[in-house]
Amino acid sequence: MPIIGELSPELRIEPACEADRALLFAPYKAALQGYVDWAWGWDEDKERLHFFERLPLNGLFKLNHRGQCVGGFCIEETQEHSQHLRTLFIRPESQGLGIGTRLLQHLIQEAQRQQQPLTLHVIHINPAKRLYERLGFRAVREEEKTFFMRLDSR
């Protein structure tokens, strides 16, 4: 999925390297700790292990807004030939600026270009669910703490 590059004059996607994981963990924690804590309890060691060892580097990207890293995301192709957005996180102080919307529009375009559905999980209390729905995602399965959402290719 060719997703690297400039989304606007102020917003750029860059591939993450191993050294970027430490930089990216701070916005990951700031954006998601409250939701993860509600769902499963935030365990710092477990979350660090997940972030540093289980997110595939080849699908991990940085979001730079006005030259500053404000968040990131991890996306991967599944065995079912869909694109799965494993995580998306934006620093709370950078939310509400259209960064998530612009990124998701770009990911949707790329998935549709490849004629693949785009899927994700969202924790029940995360208000990002409304953004996903506005962009066309539908909850196809409700799990104990999350919704599994899908946007089919057109």
Automatic annotation (TrEMBL):
PANTHER family cross-referenced by the UniProt entry: ACETYLTRANSFERASE (PTHR43420), N-ACETYLTRANSFERASE DOMAIN-CONTAINING PROTEIN (PTHR43420:SF12)
Pfam families found in the cross-reference section: Acetyltransf_10
Highest taxon listed in the record's lineage: Bacteria
Protein name, as recorded: GNAT family N-acetyltransferase
Native organism: Limnohabitans radicicola
Keywords, in A-Z order: Acyltransferase, Transferase
UniProt GO molecular function: acyltransferase activity, transferring groups other than amino-acyl groups
InterPro entries noted in UniProt: Acyl_CoA_acyltransferase, GNAT_dom, YpeA/RimI_acetyltransf
Keyword Transferase: yes
Alphabetical list of SUPFAM superfamilies matching this protein: Acyl-CoA N-acyltransferases (Nat)
